[in-house]
Structures are given as structure tokens and as C-alpha cells.
Amino acid sequence: MKPIYNFSAGPAVLPKPVLKRAQEELLSYQGSGMSVMEMSHRSALFQSIIEEAEALLRELMGIPSNYQVLFLQGGASLQFSMVPLNLGKHKAAYVDSGSWSKKAISEARKIKQLEVEVVASSEEQGFKQVPEVPFIAQDFDYLHITTNNTIEGTTFFTAPDTGKVPLIADMSSNILSSCYQVSDFGLIYAGAQKNIGPAGLTIVIIREDLIGLKEPISSMLDYKVQADHHSLYNTPPTFSIYIAKLVFEWLKNLGGVAEIEKINREKAALLYEAIDTSELYTSSVERKSRSLTNIPFTTNNTQLDKRFVQEAEAAGLVNLKGHRSVGGMRASLYNAFPLEGVKALISFMEQFEKNAKGAH
Ligand SMILES: *Cc1c(COP(=O)(O)O)cnc(C)c1O
Fold first, then answer.
1. Which ligand 1 atom is at minimum distance from the Cα of 150?
2. If DSSP codes are grouped into helix, strand and coil, which group holds residue 320?
């Protein structure tokens, strides 16, 4: 089979060595004669998988000991509801930086008796940058941001100062791809399928004093129940957790988050440079907000964009079609996406630009 480069925004490319290892261990995990998929989630073998996964994530992100790590289901989208259900007592502040923020805001607004205030928005700028976040009143229950806007291609590289108000972050599309200080946040959540592993797993990192703040709610939705049971209240997504563990090992062997951030910066810089120096392609994202992981660009011509995506696909550069709400192209360059793939895309872009000029 011809190798391809997969630019999918999610579910996304996984490290080849991880897939190989999973393949080797698929039929008999550590001599058990069983696949991880077939094992009890209460078995000693699985217990060590989930414990190692947690230990590795703690090490990679430098998660302080007063934070719990939860392995949940329901995607980042369920966190849009769990966050306000568990932490929203009176009023919650949200930053609107794009489509995913809007969904988080809309779910929070469904919680009765919770006042939801949008304290900053970049909608008027067409979400071409992340908004300035003001220092908010200290009586908010929390402030919610989306650190990386997967669809618009913008990023908060540093956590805004919220004083004593817990900062909550949807980090679905840039967790582990650049360095953040976990202690700046009260809670971080991320669907695994962008930068960690297969779909079906959602990571929640929560400061202990934010657990059990309200009356008990439905058990599955309650951080306290999930934390008290160490993510084993019911059957967790065992295979996804196993793959996540392998990805964490892979990342650790590579040198950790600081090291992968360097590589990610190199990959992104190459692509932005190619876009900025070309006469055909443009990126509408403000420089200071430009994402390392999701890079939208366009030829400003719908027909040409369509041809680009088709011809790129034929050349083995797949899933470059932009999100339907933005159009154009989008290259997602998560941790597992190789530098050679970026170089291959740039060569293709140059050739396509030449051909497009020739056609005039
Ligand atoms: C993909 C994504 C989501 C949705 O994740 P699901 O796991 O599909 O619910 C939410 N927020 C951001 C920033 C995303 O990139």
C-alpha cells in the first residue's frame, strides 16, 4: 500500500510505532492469551494499564498531586454539560472564541438557575484571533476557555489570569502538544481522538477542591462518583485507555511535551511560511493567535479549493478539506503527524500553485 499523510482534524493520525505495538499485542496481551479488549476492567492486567496511563500523563503534564485524573466517556461534548452541572452554582463566565466555545456556552445555558455570561468574544473579528480576556469579578464559579479552536485555527498559548476563579479549559485539540502549567487551571478536559488516542476516551484533570461542590447528581455525570471510583464506577473504554498509555510512552520516549512542542513549532512554522510567501494561498488567522495544531488556509476561490483537496488526495495527502463552516483547507498537525508530511504538503502546494498560474 502507498503511504499516505493523514491531515484529519479528528479522529486523527496515531504514531505508527504505537499501532505496531498494539498489533503485536492484539491477540495476547503480555502472555494472557487475551486481547486487552477481552479483559475484565477489574483484572490486575488492566489495573496496571490504567495506573500506568495515569502516571505517564501526570509525568508528561507535570500534574500536581492535588489534581485527580479521570478517564471518562461521552467526549468533550459531555464535558460541556458536566462542567456546569458540577461546578456551576450561581453564575459562570465563558469566553467565546469559536464554534466549540459556542457549543459549550449553549449547553451551560440549559442548566437551570445558572447564569451564564460571555465575558469576552472574538466573533466580531470573525474569530480570526482569540479575544483579550478581562480580569473578571471574583464571584464567578468559573471561567471557561477553549485553548485551541480546532475549526478556526486559533490558540490561547497562555492561561488568562482569573485570580481566585477556577479556570476551566477545553484542551481537546492541543493537550500535550504545547506546554501549559496545570496549576493555572481548575479543570482541563479533552476528547482523546485528536492528540492522544482513539475516540471513546475523554480525559478530565480536576483540582480536588472542585470535586463534590454541589448536591449529588446522576452518578455517571458526577465528578465525585467518578473520582471516588478511580474512573472504574462502570466499564471504562479499556482499549482506548490502553492505546492512550502507549501514546504517552511514545511521547515520553520522544522527550516529552517540551520536546514535541519544538517539533510542532517547526512543522507549523514551515506551513505558515509556505502560505505567507505564496501568491495563491492565504491564512486569515492573526499571527499571534495562530494554532500549531490546526491550520486553515484557502486559495480564496471555492472551485480551486475543491480541486486542491481532490488532487491532494490523489497524491496521498488526505483529509485536507476545511470544516464546512469555514471552507477552504485545513491541515491538522497533531503530535503524531510527521514533519515529512508537512514537507510533502508544501511541495504539493508549490506544484499546484504553478499549475494554477499556468492555467491562466
Ligand atoms: C473535537 C472537539 C470537541 C468535540 O469533541 P467530542 O469528543 O467529539 O465531543 C470539543 N471541543 C474541541 C475544542 C474539539 O476540538
1. 15
2. coil
Full-model pTM: 0.98
Structural domains in the chain, CATH included, are 16-254 (3.40.640.10), 256-359 (3.90.1150.10)
146 in contact with ligand 1, CB cutoff 6 A: yes
Dihedral of alpha carbons 152, 142, 62, 43, sign? negative
Task: Indicate which atom in ligand 1 lies nearest the CA of residue 77.
Answer: 9
Instruction: Return d(Cα 149, Cα 325) in angstroms, integer.
Output: 13
Closest ligand 1 atom number to CA of residue 151: 15
Question: Is 164 an annotated catalytic residue?
Answer: no
Q: Give yes or no: 194 in active site.
A: yes
Q: Indicate if ligand 1 lies below 6 Å from the C-beta of 284.
A: no
The angle formed by the CA atoms of residues 241, 245 and 249, to the nearest 5 degrees, is 170
Interval between CA 2 and ligand 1 midpoint (Å): 30
Residue 172 CB–ligand 1 contact under 6 Å: yes
Alpha-carbon span 205 to 194, nearest angstrom: 17
User: How high is the mean pLDDT of the chain?
Assistant: 97
Protein residue closest via CA to atom 7 of ligand 1: 75
What band does 3 get if pLDDT is binned at 50, 70 and 90? Answer: confident
- Report residue 360's pLDDT band, with 50, 70 and 90 as the boundaries: low
Q: What is the pLDDT of residues 303-339, one digit of tens each?
A: 999 999 999 999 999 999 999 988 999 999 999 999 9
**Does 250 qualify as catalytic in the annotation?**
no
Q: Which of 100, 222, 250, 305 is catalytic?
A: 100
How far apart CA 58 and CA 167 sit, in angstroms, is 19
Does 76 contact ligand 1 (Cβ within 6 A)? yes
Judged by DSSP in three states, 89 sits in coil
- What is the DSSP secondary structure assignment for residue 18, as one 8-state letter? H
Residues 6+ apart with CB under 8 A from 236: 41, 50, 71, 72, 73, 201
How many Cβ atoms sit within 10 Å of the Cβ of residue 257? Answer: 22
Task: Reply yes or no: is the peptide bond before residue 84 cis, omega within 30 of 0.
Answer: no
